[in-house]
Design goal:
By secondary structure, the protein is an alpha+beta fold.
Length: 202
């Protein structure tokens, strides 16, 4: 009888071990799925001689190539004459840095009062305009101009006109409008966000 009890005991221990191992494996797979779903694949396509369209997850945007006229860009505090054209990997890195750091840089939520979007909760709701530049240290920066892209019928009934941008639109500058319009610079070499600016309320 002793040997039957020992076999039963060993079988129970093995069963528990297998269950724990299975649960751990399922947990790891679940975590990987969550992480990979947060990293949206970026797709680029040609719009015209000066612009490249971007689709990243549920968000859209435009890259202004290095030969887009500098006098049509209004990017403050940087030398927008030192330009370069990014590839898919560069935009993916910029979006990754943005999603990792936006909550921290936006902790005080400037100009995100009632009726204005909370930026880090609504990242996919903005059309992006990417201007690629270099700073005085010759580091690669991507200035991203964010423009609210989710105007609804309810918004228009309230008097908010639907001014969403399209891939062929030129660089846009908007005054006021709270957090419907904001910008930030992504330093690809230092892996950090800088020059975070949110429009005021007029």
């Amino acid at each position: 009888m002793d040997w039957i009890g020992q076999i039963t005991k060993r079988a129970s221990v093995w069963h528990i071990f297998k269950m724990k191992k299975t649960n751990t494996t399922i947990g790891i797979i679940g975590l990987l799925l969550v992480v990979t779903s947060c990293i949206a694949e970026v797709k680029l396509f040609r719009v015209d001689d000066f612009k490249t369209g971007v689709i990243t997850g549920k968000a859209r945007g435009t890259i202004f190539n290095d030969y887009y006229p500098s006098n049509m860009l209004y990017v403050s505090d940087v030398d927008s004459s030192k330009r370069w054209t990014p590839n898919q990997t560069d935009i993916e890195l910029a979006e990754k840095i943005l999603r990792q750091q936006i909550t921290g840089i936006n902790k005080n939520r400037p100009n995100q009062m009632d009726g204005c979007p909370i930026i880090h909760k609504r990242l996919n709701s903005y059309f992006r305009q990417y201007v690629v530049i270099k700073n005085t240290k010759d580091q690669r920066l991507i200035h991203i101009n964010f423009y609210w892209d989710r105007h609804t019928i309810k918004d228009r009934l309230r008097g908010n006109s639907d001014m969403r941008l399209d891939y062929s639109s030129d660089y846009a500058v908007v005054f006021d409008g709270c957090s419907n319009f904001w910008s930030v610079n992504v330093n690809l070499d230092d892996n950090e966000l800088t020059d975070f600016r949110v429009n005021g309320v007029g």
